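Colleagues,

For the teaching module next term, I've prepared a clean inverse folding example: a structure given as tokens, and then the sequence designed for it. I'd like students to try predicting residues themselves before seeing the answer, so please don't circulate the second half yet.
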């Protein structure tokens, strides 16, 4: 409270003292007394009115009249004194001092009433935020529509596919894609009419396991156990088990003979050594076709 009063008094104390000298107060003490009376009275009136507003209490009419009158008097004093000092900037500075006093009153009232309340947006700010959200929603809808259209086939690609299909049908009928060229034969060429080659199948070759007769294992020699010393543990050696021989791989001679028979018959028919693909067309697997071709080359 005292800080606000000091600010109000300090704003126009000098101008009030100068005005007192002009109206006839020749003694310096009279000038200071006049200035203090006017300034302190105005400060007390302003702060009392602001305190009543801050406490949401009644502000009487005489207090409002006194406040307005003192404010007008101080404004006139400031503007007249400052005008004599500087005719251009003087009135402006006087009005600025009056505005500062009104601002001090409003600031005091706000600090004691609405300073702790949360901030609330004005209707204009709410309207601005709503328009921004609407614009964002429209942009999101546009993006979703573009993504939906992007998932559909491209129009240029559809036109190109239809054009290529018409050309293909025209060529299959024997016509030409260009009207000034001669017509061609109907149907597809032999390369496109041939049947695809069957995928090679791999046949598992049976295996015959031949086991050799197991040799009689020699009896383990009896080794006399040494006498165990006191405080030590002697382990008895165990005899090693006899190893079982691995089974030997035996080729399927019957399948090989049949493969060679087919390969020789095809070689006599062609007059040359057949290729692996020609042998596979005779029903041989890739393994036997390759093996039979190698055997024919060795002969």
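(Answer key — instructors only)
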């Amino acid at each position: 409270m005292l800080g606000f009063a000091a600010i109000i008094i300090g704003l126009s104390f000098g101008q009030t003292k100068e005005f007192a000298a002009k109206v006839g107060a020749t003694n310096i003490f009279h000038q200071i007394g006049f200035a203090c009376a006017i300034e302190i009275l105005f400060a007390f009136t302003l702060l009392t009115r602001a305190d009543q507003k801050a406490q949401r209490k009644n502000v009487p009419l005489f207090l409002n009249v006194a406040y307005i009158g003192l404010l007008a008097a101080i404004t006139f004093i400031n503007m007249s004194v400052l005008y004599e000092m500087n005719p251009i900037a003087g009135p402006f500075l006087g009005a600025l001092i009056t505005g500062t006093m009104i601002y001090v009153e409003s600031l005091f009232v706000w600090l004691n009433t609405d300073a702790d309340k949360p901030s609330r947006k004005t209707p204009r700010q709410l309207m601005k935020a709503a328009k921004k959200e609407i614009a964002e929603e429209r942009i999101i809808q546009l993006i979703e529509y573009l993504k939906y259209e992007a998932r559909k086939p491209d129009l240029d690609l559809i036109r190109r596919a239809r054009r290529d299909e018409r050309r293909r049908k025209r060529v299959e009928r024997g016509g030409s894609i260009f009207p000034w060229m001669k017509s061609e034969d109907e149907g597809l060429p032999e390369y496109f009419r041939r049947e695809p080659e069957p995928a090679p199948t791999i046949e598992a070759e049976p295996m015959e396991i031949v086991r050799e007769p197991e040799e009689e294992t020699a009896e383990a020699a009896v080794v006399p156990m040494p006498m165990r010393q006191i405080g030590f543990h002697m382990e008895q050696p165990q005899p090693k088990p006899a190893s079982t021989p691995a089974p030997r791989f035996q080729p399927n001679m019957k399948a090989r003979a049949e493969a060679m028979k087919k390969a020789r018959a095809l070689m006599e028919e062609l007059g040359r050594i057949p290729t692996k693909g020609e042998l596979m067309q005779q029903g041989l697997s890739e393994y036997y076709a390759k093996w039979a071709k190698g055997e024919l080359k060795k002969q």
